[in-house]
Amino acid sequence: MGIGGTGVVTVDSIVGTAALLEGKHVRSLDQTGLSQKGGPVVSHLRLFDAQPEVGSRIGAAQADSISDSIF
After folding, report:
1. What are the C-alpha distances in Å from 13 to residues 6, 33, 62?
2. Torsion angle, CA of 52/18/28/39, rounded to 10 degrees?
3. Spatial distance between the Cα atoms of 16 and 19, rounded to a whole number of angstroms
4. pLDDT number for residue 24
5. What is the mean pLDDT of the chain?
6. 69 neighbors 7 (Cβ within 8 angstroms)
7. Angstrom distance (rounded) from CA 9 to CA 6
8. Is 5 left (phi over 0), alpha (psi -120 to 50) or beta?
9. What confidence score (pLDDT) does residue 70 get?
10. Phi and psi of 40, rounded to 5°?
11. Is this structure's pTM higher than 0.70?
12. Rounded to 5 degrees, what are φ and ψ at 57?
């Protein structure tokens, strides 16, 4: 989670690429609509050992970790 311009989407991409290079399956969903106005940006990143059969969005109480880059 972050505010437009704080690198949330970039961090999501870097972590996702590293996971792919390690042989993981990755699903990612970026919500950036309000970023141009200094609004919220959210990136959902899910990593799997096997091919996933679920979507990218992470629901309430389903995350193992949360990174907050709001400064």
Report:
1. 13, 17, 20
2. 160
3. 5
4. 93
5. 77
6. yes
7. 9
8. left
9. 46
10. -70, 145
11. no
12. -70, 135
